[in-house]
Amino acid sequence: MLDLLSGLQLCDGILGAYTPSPLQEPSHLDVPPPGLGGDGGFAAADAAGGGGRGRAGAARFCRVEWARMMRSCRDAWGARLFLRKAAMASGPSGASLLGRLLLAGCGGLDGRRPGGNCGFRPTSDASGFARTAAALMLLRATGHLGKDRGIMQAFLRRTLPDGEAVAGSSALEELLLLAGQLGRTMSHLTPRPAGTAAPPGAGRAPSPAHVAPAPPRDAPAVMPPSARASSSSCPAPCPGQGGSPRLAHLLADEGPRAPRVGADVLEGLLTEPVGARSGGVMRCCICLEDHPIGKLRHCGRAVCGKNAYCLDCLRQHAEAVVQGGLYAVPAVRCPVCNQRLATATWSSLVGEQALTKYRENARALLTYRCPACDETSSYFSAAGASRDPFAVLAPEVCERLGEAWRRFFLGEAAAEDFLQAVLEEHSCGHRCGGSPPARLGKVFGTSGSALWISDLERRLAVQLAWMQRFPRQRTPCCGERFCFRCKVSSWHRGITCQERLQTEKARQAQLCPGCGVPTQRSEGCRKMTCVCGRVWEWEGDESSEEGTFDDDGSDEEDVVQAQTAVNLVSMNARASEASVQEAVQALIEARADVNQAVGPAAEGQAPLLVAVQSRHPAAVAALCGHGAHVTPEVLEEVKLISRDASRRRIEEVLRPQIQGDPNMKLPLWAWVQAGSAAAVEALLRNAAHDEVVGVDVLVALHRSSGDEDSCRRMAERVQEHIGEGRFQELSVSAATRGLLLELRQSLDEEREVDLRVVREMLALRADPNAREEAVEDDDEAEGAYGLTPLNLLAMNARATAESVEGGVRVLLEASADANTETDEAGTPLLTALQHRNVAAVAELCRGPSRFVPEILDELKTLSEPSRRHQFEELLGPVIRGDTSRRLPLWVWVQEGTAPAVEALLQRKEQVDEDALVALQRCRGGEESRARIEALLRQHLGDQEYARLQAAAATKRLLHELREAYDDERDVLTGIIQETIAQGADTNAQEEDSEGFDDGVGSFGFTALQLLVTNTHATRESMLAAVSALVEAKADVNFDDGDTPLVSAVQHRCVPGVEALSLHRVKVTADVLEELKNVSGTQARQQLEDVLHPLIDRDKTVRCPLWFWVQVGSVPAVEALLRNAAHDEEVDADALVALQRCRGSDEAKQQITERLCEHVGEEEFKRLEVVAATRRLLLELREAHGEERDPDLAVVHDALAHGAN
């Protein structure tokens, strides 16, 4: 009916192939008119607000324009307000919509010609029924249907321009008579006031917005047939009944309401078979046996007909679905119509084992492994809550969300669609990727766990959609960064998930279309079943090698779609200004599009937006100099920049672009930040300005570049506009946001903290104990779980000691709580210790910081002696000050306190490898150390002592190599030699000692892998350490995924490759594949110089064609191309190698001729372009990842070869 009224069914509507809507004039046009005005046509203002303009001012619309305008109005107002406005609407001819339906539309209502005092007799055909329904809906929208007839007539005369004719027409009399008859005959469908009795025989139907209380455990959730009848769609009108059953719903005081978001929807529950006699029997459509009616169920949908099934068949069906779900949580569907059933309908029937598997599968789909504590857990919470986070929203918003929830609950819409609806209602529909919006913390809780959804399967689907859309999460246990989409322990800033997954895809893997996880195919058919439950087909020709891609350029096209070259340059904030300008200039001259948005429209990012996100003023200037467009997304990103110098420089570059764009509409905060008091006053005075003054405006006021007088004027106008109380509240919120934003960005950008900003925000009464994720909430952040300012400052180990100490001191003076424990991290002191922030630990220890047991756990993981001793000295008073806790054995061993060790051993204290690690680090004298060793050996026995000593040495060895890699420092060869002498296992993997028995920890690095990937180790240390490990029987060719040589080449660690080459390391195909992906000319040639002698000595190595092309070996290339048994195609790899060829110009020319002759000139040119594009993107990607200037020679050469 609403589509009819709003003109959305003009082409295939129920009034004919093309019939103008009742809201429009008969002269409505099918094509856009040449201009506005003229005769006919329904005015836009008339349609929207019911006002009347003269005929000369009326605007005519084509069907598409009218549909778009009406749909926008309906979405903005909601159904009820839309109908109220439609009831008062009138056209340019002075006739109201209601009048047109009752008077001018007689020919459409009962088949008569217009004119005369026609009777209003609705027919059973679609046209008459539609107009009758429309007229009844409009009368009901006036609020006078059912009241005294005289009151209604007076109201119509007063409000409608043709009210006199409408109120006195016989058509209105007949319509009111019909309404009265329908109201009496179908009164049982009208909700009754509480406490009134229902008429005899009438079933009391529950509201479809809520579900009845949960059934007992031994019976599935069932909806009574009466409730089903009232909540489902009514049947079409039967001949002779005048459509009364369908129209009766229009007369109810309250129409069918949308279900409460999160609650079970009645249409998804089961009902007993309708129409069966009580106490009778029916046949189950599955087992074909007769059962009592009470033990049969029907899904209630019309498509199922009269088919019903017994509870036992339903149980077996549900258990089969659950057991066949592997690691998935599939929706159980009706065995007849295959539509989704609510979890509550079958969960009470299946066995406890099946339910447990269902819950465990849900947990498995959201499993993560914390990079800090190595614990495996899940983001999923099995228990739901009844709190409704949408109760505070407007009714029309709840109605829209309720409809979106109904469609999602019944399986008619995807979880992504429902999530998009929720985000749009909270003004976050544009957000996609990165961290989740903080303002939705109260709705979705931590990590998207929508506990207000009672249905387990639906709640999991929403949470998976949330995690896929906002993959940047933090582990609940330690607050460590975790990318859920990539399943890696970082947020890989500067590289999108799609790009990273494309890198994985290049390693003989394809991405699951359901969850995006890289998947390898080892054997079997092409049908793939992912752990997320998605079944998909493996792409590629069966004749090709299993699990691989054909190198025909398809990979290059995928990489291009991941990021463009201009985007990659814009991301590289570490590149110099000159190299960025030259690279952008070269790309522009090669016809690169500076405004191309990468990815789908919903999440595409243009280069300028990427440059601003990367805080790269040089790239912003270069792009704006070549016509980059400033979009609202760019302005939103500028708003988030905390550092004054970077923000103002970027604003200066963007200002001419904004001023030159007449279509750019700046928000209020932009004018405030620019210091334009006149523009701010004009916007606030403009009644049509509907922008809400929020925290953004106050943040901009604190940063405003205007003079003191302008800032004072703007502050006065804003305060006058919103009131003093609200102004003060927003000012505090803005200061808090500014404080957290500065501390967060200084941490992410690895720079010093701007203490001036910290002091200014605290002076403006910023909350020093606020949580990061709760900044945008106006209310108390009951679900706050983010980091506090002290936590953020404690994490910033890259800042200077002066700025960290000063920041901690200022926060503590502002009453920051030094002992607040957050869900994402521990106390600030523990956080500082975890991030090895000596300055923060020192300042916090001088304050009121308390001891927590996790501090000791973190202390024992420190490897470097000087820094460990420094932390022990700082934390000693805090640890000793807590007399309520007994210190573990290893603390006394490391301190060298023999009497305490002896006392604890007498109390049967357990001795583990931590105690032996502490003994090897003992700070006591030789006498104390010898005594403690004797006590431990006596307590354990010689054999157990030797075992624990070797395990402790292994742990120390791996801790030292891991810490050196993470801290980007040289390795301490003294610790390596000492641990080897104490019996360390040089082939142990990092996770072996943690006791994982589920295979999760089987991917840990060995000591050699950790060592040869450390690009910050000196050549001398590398050679000495590798020799020591090899002498201790470390396997240089240990292969548990990647060999040490593969790892070294992956990290471009030339000293590591050189050290391995001295100890009979083998060059494998994986090594050559990694070498192929090295773009930096200097690093690649150094690696080649080390690897070539190894390849020459090992006659078993079969080098691919591209390798000989890159070497410049003409005889080898000719031999491979002539060899009929050579099954390797000339692909883009060979052309990349040709462009990198290290041979002479003559050799390069000969190889070019041979390749061109082999594949043909046309194919050669195509592969040349593909290869050049790969080189270009590979170089720009590698330069960004290694934080270096791009090799401009490679860029120019690739573009010269036709790179896209």
UniProtKB/TrEMBL annotation:
Species name: Alexandrium monilatum
RING-type domain boundaries: 280-559
SUPFAM superfamilies for the chain: Ankyrin repeat, RING/U-box
Keyword Repeat: yes
Record's keyword terms, sorted: Metal-binding, Repeat, Transferase, Ubl conjugation pathway, Zinc, Zinc-finger
Region: Disordered, residue numbers: 187-249
Name of the molecule in the record: RING-type domain-containing protein
Record field: compositional bias (Low complexity): 190-212, 219-235
UniProt GO BP: protein ubiquitination
GO MF annotation: an example: zinc ion binding
InterPro entries linked: Ankyrin_rpt, Ankyrin_rpt-contain_sf, E3_UB_ligase_RBR, TRIAD_supradom
